Amino acid sequence: MTPMPITSRTPFGQLRRRRGDAVSRLRSFSDEDRAILLELLIKEQDLIESPEFEKPDAERRLYDEAEIIEEPDTSWYHPVMDDLNLTRDREKSSKQVLLTAAQERVLFLKYNYSRFVVRSLQREVWASADKTPTDEQARELVRWKRRANVIREQIANINLALVLAMAKRTRMSEVDFADLVSEGNMALLRAVDKFDCERGFKFSTYGCRAILKAFSRQGMKLSKYRQRFPTDFDPKLERSDYLETKRAESVRDTASEVRRIVDENRADLSEIERTIIEHRFGFDDRLRNEKPMTLEQIGQIIGVTKERVRQIQNKALDKIRDELEESYINGKHAQEHEVKLLPEIIGYGLN
Fold it and tell me: All domains of the chain, ordered by start, with CATH?
């Protein structure tokens, strides 16, 4: 049977509209709080149950009397932007928070108790006649959900090093390192949501397996994609030297054009300018097997200072560049980016 579409006329659609109207009436709430509240009124909060939550003094014991866990320093965690060696140095030098099993239990009980309170409030709202929250219930829902999010982020930040360690250990050749780290971060958050601290294991044991499993799933997904579209996507092409080869060929072709410009004097170079260019970049066939001269050596030949040689050389290069640009405008040999690389082009294969 085809499921009925959700519209404003269906019972669920009407319920969602009433809840949306109730959320919009909360003027004192920010847009972010309203979005959180609307999500909570549509989807039931999941959590990991514990007998501790049913005790009458649960909030006091888990929040007021529990050990305060220090917030971690995550300024070192930039694995995609930094060089791996630099990141490794930061790992060693940064202030890390290493939790004991008891401290982990404190954090996870806090996190799941916050979610437990959220779910309890949800069920109170849904049990009411109009199934919409009062102002007090709405504020409590948002407050406890924000508490849960803060603790979840704290747990994830403490265990960020697990993602980097597993990514370096895996190093899947067909998956980009940045994509691997991103997938690992998402797997870490999912592991935080599903970890049961009452079983007596450390979170790192569970988290590492969850991250590695996510890496494996990503690799399988990519492999299936490559099999389905073998010609449209191939990571091996991303690591090839195709672009460098094409660039070198283009530079070689343009270098030949520069040589013709100098040989035919299409740039109207003066005699001294041609002499400097030929000696500086080895344009003279008699000098092709010799090392190009320095500015000072050329200055000694023509009787001027090396600074004056530099000035004349730059003026000659400007003339050659103008000729190349004109050739480009006329649809001839040079490309626009090659004109900007003129000194490199002249130095490539011309000495």
Answer: 28-228 (1.20.120), 242-347 (1.10.10.10)
